[in-house]
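Recap quiz, item 2
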Amino acid sequence: MRTDPADADAIELSLGIAAERGGDLTPIVYARLFERQPEMVVLFWRDTTDAIKGEMLMRVFEAILDFIRARQYADHLIQTEVVTHAGYDVPPDVFATFFGLVAEVVQQVCGPDWSPAMAQAWRRLLTDLDHYVTHPQQVAV
Amino acid sequence: MNKPVKIQAADAAAETAAMPLEKLNPARVDRFYNDTIWPVFERLRREDPVHFTPESEYGPYWSVTKWNDIMAVDTNHEAFSSADGIGLANLEAVAEQEKVMGVRRRGNAGFITMDEPEHGPARKAVSPTLAPTNLQTMAPLVRERAGEILDSLPIGQEFDWVDLVSKELTAMTLATLFDFPFEQRRKLPWWSDMVMNMPGHGPVESWEQKGAAMFECFGAFTELWNQRVNAPPANDLISMLAHNPATRNMSVETYQGNVILLIVGGNDTTRNTISGSVVALNKNPDQYAKLRANPDLILPMISETIRWQTPLAHMSRVATRDVELGGKTIKKGDRVVMWYISGNRDEEMVERPNEFIIDRERPRQHMSFGFGIHRCVGNRVAEMQLTIIWEEILKRFPQINVVGEPVLNWSAFVHGFESLPVVIPYRT
């Protein structure tokens, strides 16, 4: 199901506020990921400057923006990332965790500007994204 | 076969601008050889981003030239199949090759030319060897060997960087990954060159010679398979293929396809990025100065080179059903080419895309490794080798000077260098 335009507006607004207030969210997002999934730390052993983590997070934001609007590729990208990461022993539940903690961090950085509409839009978005994480097999349309 | 003729960039740009759009064939190899492809892709991105070429030496095909459209094709493996080959094939060359080597299934180049559900388990049989955790173990050996290569280079004398450094480093790493006899390592890039070139280009003199090289390669790897399948499982790629339930019973042809995939994939991307980095830094001395002043820029410089060079210019697919893309209808059975080399210069996605800037805000924003289930399985190995070689270069050589015109590959697929004359004036 396509994202409701009102939800897309609310998500975009929250991401805009987070980008303006929080700057680079990479350290805070990955600190939380590693706290919850410490087994992920070793996979980033080469990433001493956070460049790999930063690009992955940017790709997540771009995928979210594509997913809530044109949906040119994001649904398929999420499915294929689940598959390719499984090859590196990254289980699908890490994806669900990751999208969820991105939402948490955006909420935290938005602070008092986090609105009920944003909360509801993100909740629905996470449910929609979870469908693609848990159903990575592409089926003919 | 066409013979290379040098064409000036201005002439090529004028020819591209004057050509009727429907006649534009972005896979014309002479433009890659002469480094005059850029106006073609600029025009297509601007005027016809999803472009159909009805007649060419490859038959009819679609070109996808903008970032988001490429992502849409690359991530949709249900609608775009890899099973009939992942590169454009020159029809005349295919016919000539079949006369000598017999008919092979077009798409038989290992797991990259498989669709789901066959593809996933086959790829997973080798991906642990190339995963970040395993590379951590391998890194010290790569560093030691990179140091040996660099310490053997002549100082103050002209030499071919492609031969003495780029090929040698990838040969050493590939030999390690395969546990291939180390003293014979240079056969690996040589076989890769024999696969990827047509007679008259690279080391290939005739179809017969090319066929003989392939038989030699397959013979050597059959011997390795027989050794590994009868030995306890080990951590090299051949042992993993021989012992993994998903691949241990694969056909001989599929095994040969996987061997070619791993040799070519492990060779071309890394090798041409190593050469490309030296070329790019020489063309942009301000960026070279930045790198020398701040070695923390090695990693972003590597990513920027991978974008700027785009060592594999394209990948192709075949539509499994009618698909709407960019306002065009791609019909079931049509061949579709994703031009990564164009997506990497998409002005809407990359700021000042034609410039080589090693401290970009988003240095890793490139599509050279592809996306989707066929995303380059060895991308982390490639980045590791490239980072290590540059760390070791900067410890030894403040400057590597390109002293002549590089010779580019005769290929619309591998975007790289046949030779690159350089001089290292002095050691640190």
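The radius of gyration of chain B is 21 Å.
The interface with chain A takes residues 68-69, 71-72, 74-78, 116-117, 120, 123-124, 127-128, 131-133, 135-136, 296, 299-300, 303, 320-321, 362-365, 371-373, 375, 377, 380, 383-384, 387 of chain B (CB under 8 Å).
End of item.
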